């Protein structure tokens, strides 16, 4: 039976409080970035101080420039890796692959992802990331699991489930970390795709639980192997009783279902100790180690 964590919302939500909903979502429709009147109108909106109106030609030029920047960033793509350790003794358990680029046309990973979404280049970016990760994993045998972020749209890239894909040969060492960056309203169920990936040997993690993203539907024990608590939940956890109650409810539910919980973004010993006391299985964050280039 599906299990949902719903309606736990801090009274301080407007100040960065916590709201949680968990589950695997429904599949998004492809929405090409057409340059139409609506697009132009959205880009043309300004404040009273800045009322520049963009023409269709302006939008086309802007998108072309953005595509060039994205291409340069993908061509210079690199991956950094951040350790994930056991909460009990801080022994190394795994690491997370994090997107970086030597080209700074787009200044940070978030800007690269935003550009890929806007230009409908998520598949191109995702394939480049997975190829880089597969090479690093292949060059570093016996170094534990590697968590690789997976955009929801990547779930429908046929290469992902191909036996000839770069990750296929190292699937037993890969945890695909699914996060929601796009609306999934009115889409088909994605559990078939997730189940297919697990059959190929991949493990599944749900990322950013409690991070304020749109609700991810219904969470069942069969959907994932790991849940990652968002750093907004972890930050100053030792000082906030509401966050502590929420984290404890998550860890207890996950323990009952055999799903492991990772505290992400841990920066202080107090946060780490509180996570351990609340039943968190693994820790990740600057307190443990900063992301670094390979070897992992």
Describe the structure in your own words.
The protein is α/β, with parallel strands linked by helices and 296 residues long. It has a domain at 78-283: EAL domain (TIM Barrel, Alpha-Beta Barrel), CATH 3.20.20.450. The chain has helices spanning 37-44, 56-75, 109-118, 122-139, 191-199, 231-234, 241-257, 269-277, and strands spanning 8-9, 19-20, 77-86, 92-101, 145-151, 174-179, 203-209, 226-229, 260-263, 282-283. It starts with 7 loop residues before the first strand and ends in a 13-residue tail after the last strand.
Estimated share of beta-strand residues: 15-25%
> Average pLDDT, to the nearest integer?
82
At the fourth level of CATH, the homologous superfamily of the domain at 78-283 is EAL domain
Rg, Cα atoms, Å: 20 Å
In helices, the fraction of residues equals 25-40%
Q: Report the sheet with the most strands, covering strand number, pairing sense and barrel closure.
A: 8 strands, mixed, barrel
Order of helices and strands: EEHHEEHHEEHEEHHEHE
What's the shape?
A: globular
């Amino acid at each position: 039976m599906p299990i949902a964590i719903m309606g736990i919302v801090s009274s301080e939500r407007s100040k960065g409080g916590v709201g949680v909903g968990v589950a695997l979502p429904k599949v998004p429709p492809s929405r090409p970035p057409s340059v139409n009147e609506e697009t132009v109108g959205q880009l043309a909106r300004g404040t009273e101080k800045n009322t520049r109106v963009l023409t269709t030609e302006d939008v086309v030029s802007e998108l072309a420039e953005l595509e060039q920047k994205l291409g340069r960033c993908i061509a210079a793509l690199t991956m950094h890796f951040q350790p994930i350790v056991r909460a009990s003794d801080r022994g190394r358990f795994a690491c997370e692959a994090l997107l970086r680029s030597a080209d700074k046309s787009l200044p940070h990973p978030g800007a690269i992802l935003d550009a890929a979404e806007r230009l409908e280049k998520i598949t191109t970016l995702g394939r480049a990331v997975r190829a880089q990760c597969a090479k690093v994993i292949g060059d570093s045998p016996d170094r534990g699991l590697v968590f690789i972020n997976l955009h929801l749209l990547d779930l429908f890239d046929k290469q992902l489930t191909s036996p000839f894909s770069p990750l296929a040969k190292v699937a037993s060492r890969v945890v695909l970390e699914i996060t929601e960056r796009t609306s999934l309203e009115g889409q088909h169920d994605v559990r078939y795709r997730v189940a297919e990936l697990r059959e190929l040997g991949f493990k599944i993690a749900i990322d950013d639980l409690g991070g304020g993203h749109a609700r991810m539907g219904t969470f069942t024990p069969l959907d994932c192997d790991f849940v990652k608590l968002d750093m907004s939940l972890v930050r100053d956890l030792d000082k906030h009783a509401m966050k502590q109650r929420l984290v404890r409810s998550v860890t207890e539910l996950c323990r009952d279902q055999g799903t492991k919980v990772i505290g992400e973004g841990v920066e202080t010993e107090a946060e780490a100790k509180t996570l351990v006391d609340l039943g968190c299985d693994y820790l990740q964050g600057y307190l443990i180690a900063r992301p670094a280039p390979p070897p992992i």
